């Protein structure tokens, strides 16, 4: 078992629910909305993924977080009790449809008897009905005993128990989409982003800042360049332009990597740090537009901006300035 999985087993209930919320937002693009409810009156729901605006009147997935302390696994009785809550609250009208998928999130695992029931869905239905009085009747609400009413029995009989699944810590940490959630909840240091390289031909994603630089080089030369390719072929400015494109794609690779592997919001904070670190230099008076670009690049190279405590390579910080130009926050030309 990896050390990361062990750390995931040690987080508290609130952190586990936060992790699942962040993870399913990243892992599945199918959800219209993700909502964390987990509380004393959650009606059997910790984290929900709604598949449509209809929410509880349409398809939805339920992630029930069951963190066991002292090395314990989720037991059969507790698992059946949690399932019982869903059918009870459904029959009470808390939600108009039953979940299309029900997932036990048990970082420390589940006991063998519960595993056998989940892997044999028809036996899970039978166990829930037969074990209702023992496991569910007195645990669904504190105020009263909840008998297996005809309505609850009908709901259980009509449910497809193949929709019940489970997830453990070792299973979760293997999912690449879990990276940002693990980074935020466990406070992990992100890895080093891979380097980027500029394609030979100009790409659509760089069109805005490239066209601005085309104007910058035209001002410096005193003769307008018609296309970016004309700049690349220029003896005086071609190499300088290639350096800027390399920096842009270094930053593009950096952004793609950290969107997938770093806590939500961290990348935006880094971009803001770069912006505020260079904007005063950008606003200074400069002899030419090209001198302004060079001054900003020089200042960006020495910025102390970091991402969650990890220093960032010089070309990435410089390239981020071109991304800011691309986004309209920091323009190279009018």
TrEMBL record:
<feature type="domain" description="ABC-three component systems C-terminal">
    <location>
        <begin position="206"/>
        <end position="332"/>
    </location>
</feature>
<dbReference type="InterPro" id="IPR046914">
    <property type="entry name" value="ABC-3C_CTD6"/>
</dbReference>
<dbReference type="Pfam" id="PF20282">
    <property type="entry name" value="CTD6"/>
</dbReference>
<protein>
    <recommendedName>
        <fullName>ABC-three component systems C-terminal domain-containing protein</fullName>
    </recommendedName>
</protein>
């Amino acid at each position: 078992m990896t050390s990361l999985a062990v750390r995931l087993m040690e987080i508290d209930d609130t952190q586990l629910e936060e992790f699942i919320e962040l993870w399913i937002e990243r892992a599945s693009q199918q959800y219209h909305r993700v909502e964390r409810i987990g509380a004393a009156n959650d009606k059997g729901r910790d984290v929900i993924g709604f598949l449509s605006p209809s929410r509880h009147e349409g398809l939805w997935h339920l992630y029930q977080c069951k963190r066991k302390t002292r090395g314990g696994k989720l037991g059969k009785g507790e698992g059946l009790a949690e399932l019982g809550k869903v059918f009870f609250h459904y029959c009470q009208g808390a939600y108009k449809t039953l979940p299309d998928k029900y997932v036990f999130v048990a970082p420390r695992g589940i006991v063998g008897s519960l595993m056998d029931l989940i892997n044999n869905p028809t036996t899970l239905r039978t166990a829930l009905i037969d074990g209702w009085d023992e496991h569910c009747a007195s645990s669904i609400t504190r105020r009263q005993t909840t008998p297996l009413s005809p309505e609850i029995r009908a709901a259980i009989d009509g449910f497809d128990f193949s929709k019940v699944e489970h997830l453990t810590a070792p299973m979760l940490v293997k999912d690449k989409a879990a990276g940002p959630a693990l980074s935020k909840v466990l406070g992990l240091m992100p890895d080093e982003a891979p380097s980027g390289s500029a394609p030979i031909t100009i790409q659509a994603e760089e069109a805005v800042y490239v066209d601005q630089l085309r104007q910058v080089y035209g001002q410096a030369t005193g003769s307008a360049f018609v296309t970016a390719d004309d700049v690349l072929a220029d003896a005086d400015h071609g190499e300088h332009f290639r350096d800027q494109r390399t920096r842009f794609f270094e930053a593009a690779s950096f952004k793609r990597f950290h969107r997938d592997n770093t806590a939500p919001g961290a990348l935006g904070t880094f971009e803001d740090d770069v912006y505020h670190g260079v904007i005063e230099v950008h606003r200074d008076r400069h002899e030419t537009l090209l001198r302004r670009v060079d001054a900003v690049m020089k200042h960006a190279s020495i910025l102390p901006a970091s991402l969650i405590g990890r220093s960032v390579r010089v070309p990435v910080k410089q390239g981020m300035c071109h991304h800011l130009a691309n986004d309209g926050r920091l323009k190279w030309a009018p």
